[in-house]
Amino acid sequence: MTSPPKKRLSAIEYAAVILRRADRDDVARRIEEVAAAPPPERAVVVVGEVKRGKSSLVNSLLGQPLAKVDTMIATSAQVRYVPPTEENPEHTANVLLPGGGRHRIAPDEVFDWVTVDGAQADQRIDGVLPIGAEIYTDARWMPGVIIVDTPGVNGLDDRHVQATIAATDGACSLLMVCDAVAPISAAELAFLNQASSEVGTVVLAITKIDKIPGQWRTVVEENRRLLKQYAPRFGNIPVVGVSNAFAAAAARNTDPVKAQARLDASGIVELTRELEAGLGNPERIVASNAAACAGVALNALRADLVARKRAIDDAPRMEAEMGEERARLEELQARQKEWSERQRQALNRLKLNAETRLRLDLTEFRDHWIKQIESRGAIKIAREGQAMTATMNAELRALIDRLAAHLQEELTEFTVEWLGDATLQPVAAGDAVGQLAGLDLRPQREYARWKNYVDPRMMAMASTGGPLTTMVIAMLGLTGGLAIGLVGVVTIPAWAALLLGPHAKKTGQANLINWLNENIKQAQEDLTVVIREVYNEFEPELRLAYREQLEESLREAKRLHELAKDQVRTDSATREAEAKKLTTELAHIDRGLEALVSYAAVKRPTATESSLPAVAAD
Question: How sure is the predictor about 28, in pLDDT bands with cuts at 50, 70 and 90?
Fold first, then answer.
């Protein structure tokens, strides 16, 4: 009877079989879950000062004119161009709400919601202002990639960019847009220097190369020099010259040869190549994560088998060493109360540091925004106040995300320091910090936009044609009926902002600053409570993990000690047979570790590209 053909195993399957044969089912299952995770989203976040051709470049990447050019996207907003899905087919759109909510709108209504002077700019949905919008379409030159167009107002505000990146789940590249008319500016260099470590890959696009066809390469080289001198961290980033005009002409041209020539001259192909290289391959990211987990698990098993083999090969010495280790662990077990107290004190210091860091971050956040508010006049505050509050909300959410990431890193380091090397995932840290990452702050207090905005005494003077009205009319150079008609048709808030000047400015600033202070106080109260809950939950989990780890280590030391003692009494033939079996298992592990390197490197790992025979066949 012919036996069935052996199944070819991928490196991950091979590692899982080895681990299950060693009774490590939980670890094998975790590795399989990591390998089966969906690929991360890939996103390009586009930033740049106004009038640099940013939205035109977004259109060039999309291959269609969806992004509005020369419009002011509100400071609080972002527009995301997302690959279509079954739920959200091509050319559908949503506005984005705080907390991840979405509300369906028509695609041609998007810019009514997100531009400064849009028809829906001040409209609320379920009591909150939208923080952006998304249009579902596949970018022609970057299929499968999310393209995020950041605001045209304060387009180089690092705080807003960080809020955008924090909301982008997955691999992310930053595309900074300058133009060929002049070298990179001091403000643009300052922005790069302020960019946090969350900004991994950066590509610099120099637009409008068609404006100066003979000199734009000189500008590119000058930009490289300036980057190396003033922003050395980004001194070697790709710098690509592009022409949105040529890209648009290529899209319109019906002659394939001429269209390709225009496309080549536009620089879009080279730009997308650099962006794709920075984003990496999503399947490879998943494969790399799975391979890393499997490698940790196989190396841990290998260390165990090496220790067992030593117990056989050199039983007398192993018996002595394991006896000493057993005694050491038993002493640690007896001193757990002392360890717990020292650990509690160290953790309490971390908690106080986290609360201090939160207080300082919120103070810096408040001071930054008070400066922004105080720099605006009455009319600007009247027009932009709602958008500013939405921006503050988005930046506060980004601040919370950064705080959660810092706590995760800090608690992970603490776990490693107090428990030893981290295994597949840090003990307790992830679950504890999850409370902060998923925190829903209390609803923001309502912004009293017109509270005390107009002084009744001033209104009385104005309504009776007093000297204040006369002065304003004189300043405007208006006469007679024209002045009367103007006063009659101007809306009260805009008229008040113009007419009442310093009072309106002071009141508008006070309303915004009061709103800011109240919400920062509320956020600090909420976040302090959660930080304390995180540490209160983490402390007993760490203590429990230490006890379990100590008990497991002691059990293993006892087992190896007894094994070594048994081997001293065992005949040589039995020892040789056991050593041979362990040598075979170690060979499987080494083969699996070698295969994992190839598995992580291939674009789409499959059993045919990275395969091994079934372990059970040996």
Answer: very high
Window from 60-69, 86-95, 291-300, 476-485 with minimum mean pLDDT: 476-485
- Angstrom distance (rounded) from CA 330 to CA 325: 9
Environment class of residue 208 by beta-carbon count within 10 Å: exposed (0-12), middle (13-18) or buried (19+)?
A: buried
Task: Output the CA torsion 596→598→604→610 (10° steps).
Answer: -80
Predicted TM-score (pTM) of the model is 0.58
Tokens of 85: 């899905």
Whole-number Cα distances in Å, 303 to 51, 298, 590: 60, 9, 12
Tokens read off for 605: 């790992």
Residues 6+ positions from 470 with CB-CB distance below 8 Å: none
434: buried, middle or exposed (CB in 10 Å: 19+, 13-18, 0-12)? middle
Structural contact between residues 147 and 276, judged by C-beta atoms closer than 8 angstroms: no
Alpha-carbon distances, residue 238 vs 139, 170, 218, 245, 320 (angstroms): 21, 21, 15, 21, 60
Measured over the CA atoms of residue 100, residue 104, residue 110 and residue 112, the dihedral's sign is negative
Residues 6+ apart with CB under 8 A from 209: 180, 216, 241, 242, 243, 267
Tokens 């002659």 sit on residue = 255
- The answer to whether the beta carbons of residues 204 and 174 sit under 8 Å apart is no
CB atoms within 10 A of CB 233: 13
Give helix 11-21 / helix 282-313 axis angle, nearest 10°.
30
